[in-house]
Amino acid sequence: MNYMGSPANRRENTISPVANMLLNGMFLILSFLCVIPVVLVIIVSLTHIDTLVTEGYQFIPDKLSWIAYESLFKDYGTIFRAYAISIGITVVGTIASVLLMALYAYPISRQDYPFRTFFTFVLFFTMLFNGGVVSKYIIFTQSLGLLDTYMALVLPLLIVPFNVIIMRTFFQTTIHPALIESARIDGASEFRIFFRIVLPLSLPVMATMALLGTILFWNDWFNSLLFIRTEDKYPLQYLMLRVLNDVQYLRNNVQLAAQNPELMSNLPDESLQMALAVVCMGPILLIYPFFQKYFVKGLTVGAVKG
Fold first, then answer.
1. How confident is the model at residue 19 (pLDDT cuts 50, 70, 90)?
2. What is the pLDDT of residue 266?
3. What is d(CA 126, CA 140) in angstroms, rounded to the nearest whole number?
4. Where are the domains of the chain?
5. Span 199-226, pLDDT tens digits
6. Which InterPro entries does the annotation name (predicted)?
7. pLDDT tens-place string over residues 233-286
8. Which of these, 106, 138, 151, 171, has the minimum number of CB atoms within 10 Å of its CB?
C-alpha cells in the first residue's frame, strides 16, 4: 500500500491566512515603493520650471508644462532616427550576444571537453583584467577599421564573462550528461545536440541573458562617444546625452543668458532630464513583462554552484 500519497501523510506547503495577508501586504508595499520613483519622474518631466525652482519635486505640482517634451521633440525626425538605430543595435546585439555566450558556455560546461580548464581560465582572467580604453580604441579604429560604424557599438558588448559563467552553471546543473550521450549514440552531431536539445531546455537562462543583454545594449552610450562621429548615426542614449549637455551649456553661459533672458528663463533643465528618462525607458518597460517569468529561474538555477 502506498502511504506517501495519502492526505494524512502528505506534507503540504501551506501558510496561515494571517501570514498570507502579511506577505501580500508586504509585497504590495514593496511594489508601491518601486512604482513611486517612476511616477515621480513622469510628473517632474511635466512640471513647469518655475514650480521646480520654488517648490521642488512634488507629486501634485501647481503648474504643469510640456516645454521639456516640446524642446526634446522639436526635431522629431532626429529622435525617431536615433530610436530606430538603438532598436536595431539592441536587437542584433542581443541575439548575437546570447548565441555567442551560449556557444562559449556550453563546451566549458562539458566534463569531457579537453580544453575546458584553459578557456575557463581565460574567461575569469578577462573579468579581472582588461586592456583599457586606449587599447580598445586603437584595436577597433586602426586594427579593425570600425570607426564611425555600427559594428563598433555591437562588438565590445557581445561577450560578458559573468553572464557566460551563469550560463555555464545552468548547463552543468540542468543538462544531464546522459541526455547528451544518448543523442550522440543516436547519431546526432554536436551542433545538432546543441541547437535541438540544449537550447530548447535552456530557455530560462537564455531569456534571462537576453533581458540583461537588451538592457546593456539599450543603455550604452560610452561606445558611441568613442567611435561614432556622424550625427546621423547617434543612438538614442548618446543623442539624449548630447541634448542634455547642450542645455546645461546654454544655462551656464553667462553671456548668452544676459543677451536672451526670456529664452533662458523658459529653458528646461531638470524637467528635461526627467523627460529624457521617460523617453529612454519606454522600450525596456514594454519588453520586461515578456521575460519576467524566466528571469528569476534563469538566475537562481544558473547560480547554484560556481
1. confident
2. 54
3. 18
4. 76-234+285-302
5. 888 888 888 888 889 889 999 999 999 9
6. MetI-like (IPR000515), MetI-like_sf (IPR035906)
7. 999 889 888 877 776 666 666 555 555 555 555 555 677 778 888 888 877 777
8. 138
